[in-house]
């Protein structure tokens, strides 16, 4: 993605909003919704893709229907925060499928993980066998979500 990105006008912003809500929308319907004809919409979508505003398209799966209703957030403190240790941790986290999100945090701990499993027993296993064994993990604190109030993409 270039540092000198083109400015978005109201049509680009409307296109992005519509695609974020429904990535499978037909160009003709997208054009109707944003008030343009099909050809300019196709050109704008292509330009937005090339400029990196649109990173890709994918199906949003319903984790509850897939038996993954248990969500936990995990604070992780590392024993070493030098760059090589951070990179080692980052690489290892990418290999744990139960970790949906991993964010480096500026604060009282180093990383915040979002972990999704079937139930508390599955979570306990993932914590013991995968998260606790990640490189440089010194300690963790777990917070179990009781209810999801808002999750972008899942309604």
Written description of the protein model:
The chain is an alpha+beta fold and 155 residues long. The chain contains five helices and four strands, in the order H-H-H-E-H-E-E-H-E. A hairpin with a 6-residue loop joins strand 2 (99-104) and strand 3. Helix 1 crosses helix 2 and helix 2 crosses helix 3. It is elongated. It starts with 9 loop residues before the first helix and ends in an 11-residue tail after the last strand. 14% of the residues are buried.
The separation of the N and C termini measures 29 Å
Are there runs of 5+ residues with pLDDT below 50, and where? Answer: none
Report the sheet-strand fraction.
Answer: 15-25%
Q: How much helical structure, as a percent, in the residues? A: 25-40%
The count of strands amounts to 4
Number of helices: 5
Shape: elongated
Summed over residues and divided by their number, the pLDDT gives a mean of 94
Radius of gyration: 20 Å
Strand order of the largest sheet: 2-3-1-4
What structural class do helix, strand and pairing data support? alpha+beta
Largest sheet: 4 strands, antiparallel
Order of helices and strands: HHHEHEEHE
